Amino acid sequence: MYRMFLARCKDLCFGLLVLFFVYEGLMWMSDNIVLVGESKSGVPEWFDSKVEQRRQLHRDQCEKKPANPKFIEEADFTYFIVIDELKLVFCWIPKISCTTWKRVLFQAKNNGTIVPMRAHDDGNNWGHLGRLRNHPPAERKRILDTYYKAMFVREPFARVLSAFKNKVEGHSNDMFKRWEPSMPDAHVEKNKFPIYIRNVLSYNRSSLAINKHWRLYHQICPCEVDYDFIGHFEDLALEGQMLLKAIGVDHLMSFPEYHSSHSKPYLLQYYSKLTKEEIYKLGKFYELDFKIFGYDFPGPLKEILKEKELQ
DSSP readout, 99-125? Predict the structure, then answer.
C-alpha cells in the first residue's frame, strides 16, 4: 500500500513537472513568436525596413560630421522629452506637428487617458512631460543608452514656409523693415517672404542663435544620438500610428486624424518670389537636413528652378 502511494505521488509529481515546462514553453513562445510580415514590436516588416534605411542613412551622413566628445555634458537637450513609464525619449522639432505630439505623448504617458491640457502650455517643458536636460550627465547617458529614441522630420523647404506663415507673415511691416531698412515701404508687403529668407540666410548655419522654428534639424536633435525611429511628417497619420505601435501603446489609443499642412499648396506661390540664386543658397544652408534625412534637393521646387533657368 505504501509503495503504491509513493508510486502515485511520483507519477503526480512527474505530471506536474511536465505541465510546468509546457506552460513555461508556451509563455516563452507567446513573448517571442513574430507573426509573418511583422517585426517583434508588431510593426509591419516593410515599415520596419523603411525606418532601418533611414537610420542607416542618418548614421552614414552623421559620420561625415565631426562628433562632439563632450556631447552628453554640453549638448542642448531642451527638445528631448523623457517618458520613463514608456522608456521613451522623443526629440521634438518645432513646426513638425508639435502640438499634436504633445497631446499624443501625454495621453500615452497616462495609459491612453485623454487629459485636458493647453496646446502651448510651456512649450519648452511640454507640460508634465520631463526633459532630458533636467537629468545629470550620467543619467542622460543611461537614458540614451537604454530608452527607445524617436523623432520626426519634414521636407526642409516646407518647414521653412510653414514657420513663415505661422510665425512671421502676420507681423507688421516694421519688423521686415528692421531686417532690410533699405527696402522701400511700398515694396515690403509683397516681399515679406524674400526678406524673411534673406534674414535666415544672414546667419551662420551652425549658429544656435537661429530661431528654433527654422533651425537645422541636427542642431535640435544631434547626430550623436542613434535614433530608433525616424518618422516623416509627410505621412504622419500612418507613421504616427506606427510609433505608437513600436512603443506598445497602440492598444490603448490611436493617432488622431491629422489634416495635411496648410503650407503645402502655397509652396510654389511663395518660393516663386525668390531668385534662382536664393533658392540654391537656401538649399545649401539646409544641405545637411536634406542629406541626413533623405530628402532630395530641390524636391518640390524642381519646377520653379526649371522655369527660372529658362528666364
Answer: HHHHHHHHHHHTTT------TTTTTTT
